[in-house]
């Protein structure tokens, strides 16, 4: 109706929204439908459809107008419901189409089933959706995929046929729905199933069967954590998803069967190819091993190459790491022998066992592969002999350089540095000289000589890995090792004693020198440090500390007697240096107080008389000394060293003493 027509009818006209009084005051059904057309266009909520009727009543409109609005409202609500239904069906069809598309490009069954469950949950608007599959061997059904579940026990449920709602669906091949699970006695309740459902908090459950022909292979569920009535359309929709899930499972099973058949054919082809590849593999092994030897490869390179050829794990092991019986049998027979699920080939030279090549977890070995392993063991023995010769040569070179540093003091410093650089040693760095001696009686001279050779070999290996030098001397071994900022000479001595003792299986005593520097330019330094290290070693043995390691700093004032250069200043600094520095910075008299304290028999009363101060002053000074030197400064051993350091400091000071 136009505004002019409204005026001619004598009714008021206002410029409001379609739901205003002006819009609901018309006299025909067409005017009554106008506001509802707007509501439909705006996709308004159901509650909004009451507004035009309420406004008309509030405005006192005639009963026929209100009745017309009521009829228009009912018509509009039916239209709205129809539109919603069409949208819902469109969404359902779209989801079914997408799921079918996923099924057509099936690559991962779990991913397809997860998508089905997710879409079912979304379209039905439920809290949880899940899918279970039957296990014919066990006669039950188990959870395969869940969406929205939060309870671990629920996700791991297994239902016997006929147990719970899902077991009933799996047994009868019919959909079942319950508005309230725990109040429904149509199916068999069990403690395990009820506990899982209770953990998940489920109330309303809908289950539909997954069918392959006449057989049920599982159940698809939709469930809410509140009471709910599932409509017929929702049951049909879930059934459609169940059909797609069943098709996905069937497709996956067919693919699995096809892959199995193809794998069988491939295996047959492999057997044929393997038969023709035996000669090629043997030739390939020969070429690889020859190339390794020519380019200077090691034993682990040989093991890696043979691992690739034999399609297994080949390792080189020391003699003690392999089965003694199998290793001896392999050495005696000259062939690889089987030991449990492994194959062992002895690596030997001239009757001496050098180790073994072990093929792990490969019990079935054809003759060609066995010969391949034996050939690799022979090549390994040659490489080990070559490496031993090279190592012995390097050890001799390192020993000769250290001998020159100890004996030939007129050597050219530049030549010494160059020789050291070729051995990756830096004579300009701070070093410590160590002398090592075996402990324990030997059965005979031959055994003692063998033990000394083992000690020299272990020391040479340690020196090579630490970028140092080693030489046999005076019935033992002398080492020159670099000293890092994180270590002390004592640390290096003790660590070396442990390392060498473990290597030779006998106690090894190690004496160390104080740190030394500029070894190439100061030719007497190494020899003096060696003498100092020997004094430390002799002191350890006299004190009954055989098998230990120590440096001059470990012997307190006795270190002055052991030290070749009598490092008086260093001893004083280590013992009372913090107190000397404190007096110099603050002008205090802690040193004078200490002298008076010891002179007075460590009596605070006699000390205050000697210093002419109050006893509290003495106590405060001694407390400060304790903080500077440590709480144990008054123990007999520390007190003796402190008194000696005080006397040496007094004697070293200028002026009368």
Automatic annotation (TrEMBL):
<dbReference type="InterPro" id="IPR029016">
    <property type="entry name" value="GAF-like_dom_sf"/>
</dbReference>
<dbReference type="InterPro" id="IPR042070">
    <property type="entry name" value="PucR_C-HTH_sf"/>
</dbReference>
<feature type="transmembrane region" description="Helical">
    <location>
        <begin position="201"/>
        <end position="223"/>
    </location>
</feature>
<keyword id="KW-0472">Membrane</keyword>
<dbReference type="Pfam" id="PF01590">
    <property type="entry name" value="GAF"/>
</dbReference>
<protein>
    <submittedName>
        <fullName>Sugar diacid utilization regulator</fullName>
    </submittedName>
</protein>
<feature type="domain" description="GAF">
    <location>
        <begin position="108"/>
        <end position="259"/>
    </location>
</feature>
<keyword id="KW-0812">Transmembrane</keyword>
<dbReference type="InterPro" id="IPR003018">
    <property type="entry name" value="GAF"/>
</dbReference>
<comment type="similarity">
    <text>Belongs to the CdaR family.</text>
</comment>
<keyword id="KW-1133">Transmembrane helix</keyword>
<dbReference type="InterPro" id="IPR051448">
    <property type="entry name" value="CdaR-like_regulators"/>
</dbReference>
<dbReference type="Pfam" id="PF13556">
    <property type="entry name" value="HTH_30"/>
</dbReference>
<feature type="region of interest" description="Disordered">
    <location>
        <begin position="1"/>
        <end position="28"/>
    </location>
</feature>
<dbReference type="InterPro" id="IPR041522">
    <property type="entry name" value="CdaR_GGDEF"/>
</dbReference>
<dbReference type="Pfam" id="PF17853">
    <property type="entry name" value="GGDEF_2"/>
</dbReference>
<feature type="transmembrane region" description="Helical">
    <location>
        <begin position="235"/>
        <end position="255"/>
    </location>
</feature>
<dbReference type="InterPro" id="IPR025736">
    <property type="entry name" value="PucR_C-HTH_dom"/>
</dbReference>
């Amino acid at each position: 109706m136009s505004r002019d027509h409204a005026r001619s009818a004598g009714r008021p006209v206002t410029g409001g929204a379609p739901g205003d009084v002006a819009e609901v005051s018309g006299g025909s059904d067409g005017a009554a439908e106008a506001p509802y057309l707007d509501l439909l266009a705006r996709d308004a909520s159901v509650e909004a459809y009451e507004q035009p009727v309420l406004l008309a009543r509030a405005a006192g409109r005639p009963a026929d107008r209100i009745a017309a609005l009521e009829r228009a409202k009912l018509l509009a609500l039916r239209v709205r419901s129809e539109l919603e239904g069409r949208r819902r069906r469109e969404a359902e069809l779209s989801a079914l189409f997408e799921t079918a598309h996923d099924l057509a490009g099936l690559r991962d069954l779990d991913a397809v089933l997860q998508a089905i469950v997710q879409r079912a949950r979304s379209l039905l608007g439920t809290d949880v959706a899940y899918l279970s599959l039957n296990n014919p061997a066990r006669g039950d059904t188990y959870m395969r995929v869940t969406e929205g579940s939060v309870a671990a026990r629920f996700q791991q449920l297994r239902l016997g046929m006929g147990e719970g709602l899902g077991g009933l669906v799996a047994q009868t091949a019919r959909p079942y729905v319950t508005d309230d699970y725990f109040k429904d006695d149509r199916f068999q309740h069990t403690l395990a199933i009820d506990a899982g459902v209770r953990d998940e908090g489920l109330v309303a459950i809908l289950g539909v069967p997954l069918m392959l022909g006449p057989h049920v292979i599982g159940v698809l569920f939709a469930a809410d954590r509140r009471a709910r009535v599932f409509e017929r359309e929702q049951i049909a929709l879930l059934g459609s998803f169940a059909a797609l899930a069943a098709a996905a499972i069937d497709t996956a099973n067919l693919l699995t069967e096809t892959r199995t058949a193809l794998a069988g054919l491939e295996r047959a082809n492999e057997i044929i190819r393997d038969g023709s590849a035996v000669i090629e593999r043997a030739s390939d092994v020969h070429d690889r091993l020859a190339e390794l030897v020519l380019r200077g490869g090691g034993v682990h390179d040989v093991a890696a190459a043979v691992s690739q050829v034999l399609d297994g794990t080949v390792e080189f092991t020391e003699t003690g790491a392999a089965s003694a019986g199998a290793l001896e049998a392999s050495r005696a027979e000259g062939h690889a022998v089987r030991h449990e699920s492994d194959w062992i080939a002895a690596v030997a030279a001239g009757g001496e066992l050098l180790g073994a090549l072990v093929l792990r977890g490969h019990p079935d070995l054809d003759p060609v592969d066995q010969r391949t392993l034996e050939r690799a063991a022979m090549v390994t023995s040659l490489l080990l002999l070559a490496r031993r010769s090279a190592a012995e040569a390097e050890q001799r070179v390192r020993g000769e350089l250290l001998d020159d540093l100890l004996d030939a003091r007129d050597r050219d410093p530049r030549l010494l540095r160059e020789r050291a650089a070729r051995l990756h040693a830096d004579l300009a760095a701070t070093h410590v000289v160590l002398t090592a001696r075996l402990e324990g009686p030997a059965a005979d001279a031959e055994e003692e000589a063998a033990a000394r050779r083992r000690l020299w070999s272990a020391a040479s290996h340690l020196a090579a890995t630490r970028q140092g030098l080693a030489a046999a001397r005076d019935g033992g071994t002398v080492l020159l090792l670099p000293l890092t900022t994180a270590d002390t000479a004592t640390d290096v001595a003790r660590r070396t004693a442990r390392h060498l003792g473990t290597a030779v299986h006998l106690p090894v005593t190690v004496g160390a020198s104080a740190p030394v520097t500029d070894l190439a330019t100061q030719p007497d330094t190494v020899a003096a440090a060696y003498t100092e290290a020997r004094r430390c070693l002799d002191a350890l043995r006299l004190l009954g500390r055989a098998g230990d390691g120590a440096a001059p700093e470990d012997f307190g004032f006795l270190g002055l007697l052991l030290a070749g250069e009598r490092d008086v200043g260093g001893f004083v600094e280590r013992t009372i240096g913090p107190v000397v520095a404190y007096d110099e910075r603050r002008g205090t008299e802690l040193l004078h107080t200490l002298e008076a304290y010891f002179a007075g028999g460590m009596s605070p009363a006699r000390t205050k008389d000697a210093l002419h101060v109050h006893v509290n002053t003495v106590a405060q000074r001694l407390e400060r000394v304790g903080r500077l030197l440590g709480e144990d400064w008054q123990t007999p051993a520390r007190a003796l060293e402190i008194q000696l350091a005080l006397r040496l400091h007094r004697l070293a000071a200028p002026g009368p003493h």
